[in-house]
Amino acid sequence: MAVPVPERFKRAAMVTMISIKDVKRSLLVSLWFVFLSFPIMVIQVNPVERTVVWRWSNMLYMGIASLLLSFLVRIWLLRQERRLAQKQLSSSPQPSILHLLLKQQKFRYPLIIGGSVIVLAFPLIFSSYQANIMTTALMYIVLGLGLNIVVGLAGLLDLGYVAFYAVGAYSYALFNLHFDLGFWPALPLGGLLAALFGVLLGFPVLRLRGDYLAIVTLGFGEIIRLILENWNAFSKGPSGISNIPRPGFFGVEMSLDQAMTFMYYLMLVLLAGTIFVVNRLQDSRLGRAWVALREDETACQAMGIDKAQTKLIAFALGAFWAGLIGVIFAAKTTFVNPASFTFMESAIILSIVVLGGMGSITGIIFGALILILLPEYLRPLSEYRMLAFGAILVAMMIFKPEGLIAGSRRVYRFQAQKIQPMLKNNE
Amino acid sequence: MSKPILDVIGLTMNFGGIRALDHLDLDVYAGEIVALIGPNGAGKTTFFNCLTGMYAPAEGEIRLTSPETGKQTLLAGLKPNKITELGMARTFQNIRLFSRMTVLENVMIGRHCRTRSLIFGAIFRPRKTREEEQDTVDRSYRILEKVGLSGQVDELADNLSYGAQRRLEIARALATDPFLLLLDEPAAGMNPQETAELVDLIRRIRDDGHAVLLIEHDMKLVMTLSDRVFVLDYGEKIAQGTPAEIGVNAAVIKAYLGEEVLDEEMP
Ligand SMILES: Nc1ncnc2c1ncn2[C@@H]1O[C@H](COP(=O)(O)OP(=O)(O)OP(=O)(O)O)[C@@H](O)[C@H]1O
Ligand SMILES: [Mg+2]
Predict the structure, then answer these.
(1) Is A173 in the same domain as A137?
(2) Considering the domain boundaries, does residue A426 fall inside one?
(3) Residue of chain B whose Cα is closest to the Cα of A278
């Protein structure tokens, strides 16, 4: 008996078949993007010395980056198409080892209990430096879960997610600077303002899909950053805003270490809340509508789903969590400047979602832990982080498109089931 | 006679220079099964797309009248989801299921426009939302029973056989509680056994109080099932009548078989 070629290798082979037409289109997209970003990226006017600096190298970077990006998106779309064409042949994705472990009752509870003990006692066991890193990781998990609503569930490729993170951080920084607003009122306010920006971005991009949506959202992220960088009167420009207070706890005086420990537990609570809410959202009328929207927009509308409303809610909710974490970020570092909100940030968060498994909460937790903790603990490697990201993303898209832990669909119970014996279908 | 539930007058649709529909008139009454037939490229799917708000027709009026309330609506410029909400749902010729959702979830999506809970309901799950969800699940399950898919509720839609996918499309559309169901070639790709079951299913759907307008190439199915038949060719209506009338209509036979076979094929 011949050994059949494993499905994933077959799939990988097919992906490499990008036609000349695709290459041409990608080239066109990147040319267009270079042209659009030309005034921002290449020309730098120095009004003091009255000189113009032409940063040609930036143009090259822009070109290469957008070309790569466009390729990635194209590979992704191609995969989708293949999958559709292969409908009948391919079965559902194989569950990962981790998934199987978690599925088994025997391993499930010890794993969960052991995990929670470590997580709860973390700042007590480890140094505050470690706790600090862990807090960052927790923040990225929440960011990943937020972006997951937009990308993983609703299928809207958003490359400008960091903009909402910036909105949250700056709303705390600015409201504190001008109105002396404390952390606790700023937290929901930052989230809501970010959600508002999510809707603002959502409106113009309602009709866009795939690489067009990706590029516009990328542009939106950059615009927000550039505004923060250049509108000195508003945001104090590149020098940023410092002396942002850490969160208080009923007026208790805290040392730096204690404040860090408090941050850690605060993030833990926020993460628990986020997981709870995202879990419920996923498993609701709204969550189903998002997934349906991801699967087929046209069919979705034909089935009576208000596309605009559903997409806008996805953008708003996704942005809300970015805003919350933005506020936390500002409070944690006590300092914000535009350099913290570059495209790289969006890329990391997106990598978390893609690497972890789109639409899967457990997957995203692991994705964030791997992507944030690995480079921290492997310091020497961190210089190659960029490179590693690219490599990991490309490899994942080709070999494991559903991520570390693919989202699985829920099984429902019905009243009818109890009464009626299951009718076996005669096919 | 009461008012038609669907009344189309002078519907015209152009694609660039091509006229896909040319001043088409068509009506469907409550309790009817009406067939729309015609050669490939006649404009049948285009007609469905105009009805459901996916294309904006150049001319003409589409009126939908609810048989329960008697309320009449002009469908000009309405979004597809609004039209579905009014009570007209469709299936697709090239199956468009949500392939990575389960069979049951696909049908539950159809309930979307009949349910209300949003963010608040999702997060806090008040009793109203829980009841709504359970109702959605139960109704969806019953619809799946009706189309004979209750044994595969937790299967991914992707993994169903072709014929089962077509039935799932019908179930999903039924979940929106339509008074008029539009079926675009429901028997395409089915074997004779499956087709026979489909005929039975469509009859039961009609008996449950849904009117059906269906596009079909399978003449035997059309002749046994439909009360009235409309025939399209190059976007124009060339005939309309009962199956018996259509079967002997010279223009129809000509459109289908071409001029030369006319003499041999006439009964
Ligand atoms: N989106 C579109 N853009 C341009 N032309 C179109 C479009 N949709 C349909 N057409 C054209 O309109 C005509 C009618 O197409 P339509 O799909 O409605 O035919 P049909 O009767 O459904 O055919 P079939 O039996 O093959 O499904 C065809 O000539 C087709 O090429
Ligand atoms: Mg057609």
Answers:
(1) yes
(2) no
(3) B123
Contact state of B137 with A414 under an 8 Å Cβ cutoff: yes
Among A296, A414, A415, beta carbon nearest to B98:
A296
**Atom number of ligand 1 nearest to Cα B55:** 1
pLDDT value at residue A10: 44
Q: Tell whether A118 and A144 lie within a shared domain.
A: no
**Alpha-carbon gap, residue A220 to A208, rounded angstroms:** 14
Residue A133 lies in a domain: yes
- ipTM of predicted complex: 0.93
Whether A408 is covered by a domain: the verdict is: no
- With a CB-CB cutoff of 8 Å, which residues 168-187 of chain B face chain A? 172-173, 176
Single residue among A125, A146, A172 that ends a domain in this structure: A125
pLDDT digit string, tens, across residues B106-116: 999 999 999 99
- Per residue in B54-95, pLDDT (tens digit) is 999 999 999 999 999 999 999 999 999 999 999 999 999 999
Q: How far apart are CA A47 and CA A269, in angstroms?
A: 48
Closest residue (by CA) to atom 5 of ligand 1? Answer: B15
The answer on A134 and A246 residing in a single domain is yes
Distance from CA of B249 to the nearest CA of A (A): 35
CA angle B212, B215, B218 (to 5 degrees): 115
Q: Across residues A214-241, what is the average pLDDT?
A: 90
Phi, psi dihedrals of residue A19, rounded to the nearest 5°: -80, 165
- The answer to whether B266 contacts chain A (CB < 8 Å) is no
Residue of B nearest to A407 (CA): B100
Q: What is the pLDDT of residues A306-332, one digit of tens each?
A: 999 999 999 999 999 999 999 999 999
Domain with CATH 3.40.50.300 in chain B: 1-87+178-267
Mutate to test the pocket of ligand 1, among B12, B13, B14, B15 (most ligand atoms within 8 A of CB): B15
Around ion ligand 2, residues with a beta carbon closer than 5 Å are: B 45, 93
Do A66 and A178 share a domain, yes or no? no
| Domain span including residue A110 | 94-125
For domain B1-87+178-267, give the CATH number: 3.40.50.300
C-alpha span between B133 and B257 (Å, rounded): 51
Neighbour-count burial of A356, counting CB atoms closer than 10 A to its CB (0-12 exposed, 13-18 middle, 19+ buried) = buried
pTM (2 d.p.): 0.82
C-alpha A99/C-alpha A360 separation (Å) is: 11
